[in-house]
Amino acid sequence: MFETLLTYIKRHSESSLSDEDIMLIKKSFLFKSLKKKELFLEQGKVCQYTGFIIKGATRQFSIDASGIEHVIQLSIENWWSVDRESFLMKAPSVYNIEAWEDTDLLVLSLENLERIHSIPAIKEMFWQMNQSNFIASQKRLNYSISLPALERYEEFLKHYPEFVQRFPQHTIASYLGISKETLSRVRNKYVHK
Amino acid sequence: MFETLLTYIKRHSESSLSDEDIMLIKKSFLFKSLKKKELFLEQGKVCQYTGFIIKGATRQFSIDASGIEHVIQLSIENWWSVDRESFLMKAPSVYNIEAWEDTDLLVLSLENLERIHSIPAIKEMFWQMNQSNFIASQKRLNYSISLPALERYEEFLKHYPEFVQRFPQHTIASYLGISKETLSRVRNKYVHK
DNA sequence: GTACGATATTGACAAATGTCATCGTTCCAA
DNA sequence: TTGGAACGATGACATTTGTCAATATCGTAC
User: Per UniProt, what is one Pfam family of this protein (chains A, B) (predicted)?
Assistant: First the structure.
């Protein structure tokens, strides 16, 4: 159950893990299982955990004034799922996080995060994760202000080909900030070009 | 010259700075002065420094296939200016960073960053900066996929009122991902509503 | 097995935004 | 001081994208 997480930590840090480190890590995470459509985080509540996905997939979305859902983030195995703002500030979240498949997570409270932060490999891992999250987010932003729908979709395909298999098209459309009809038409253009 | 930076560090960390810490910090930064329109980073080159702005303003932008500039980031005093991807990966940047006013910076190389990273307050400061950068970037993304032009502008005004005084409208339009003409019209609507 | 809901496609039309051209103003540099 | 570049506003029109409705398909819960 912890193998995925430990492998992830090793791949994202320079320092190695002692046996005590591993013990501490195992004590600090909780196992959580969600059925499809179950909520990991509900709008208005504080995000209590940051979750490492062992199996399954989640989507994070906001609901605007007209009741329309906007997908902010998609995550699958080996990704973290959390609303960082709510989690770190202990503030009510404006987002929902929903399991899109039956999903298994290892979750970590803020207190336990601070506890295992004493482990160098953990610190490095989170540091690296922060950096790459920020870089990815800046890239997505760049695309969203500078590319038309078709090219945004092509970039998405290039970066996250697995996601196309795992999430329905209207979810991906929302992630890209376009309507599902536009994505459908754009895919047609893409196939025939 | 270092007061601004030291104040910033204190405000963004819990640990305090010893005199030796301050010495090390002062040794690790270089002073850099840019005239208006001068480049801090040029597309295709590696971003050698992360810069803390003491005075002035910068804009980070990409240039697309049609030669059109897209503003990714605007920064003023007390902000950091850097292309993090290029800086951390030592990879050629796809962005330019230009001084929009005469600008004074304290800049830090990656090697020196690693050196002062031994100081707890510095580590905490960068950690917090990373978190809030990511949160801000996620928020901007949320707005860019879920709000129409007028509301995007209103959010911008609410979050960054100073920026409206410091940057020309067409720069802000580009930052928001809309054309300068649309922003001009949208502002008219905003004033008269 | 069937019925229903979720998904995806398509057409007709509407709305938002972009593009191009023009003009007036301001501001800075020669 | 003045001329030109940068900036911003506006009109006419094009393009992109969204909205709404109809339909087909597929999977799945009962």
Answer: cNMP_binding
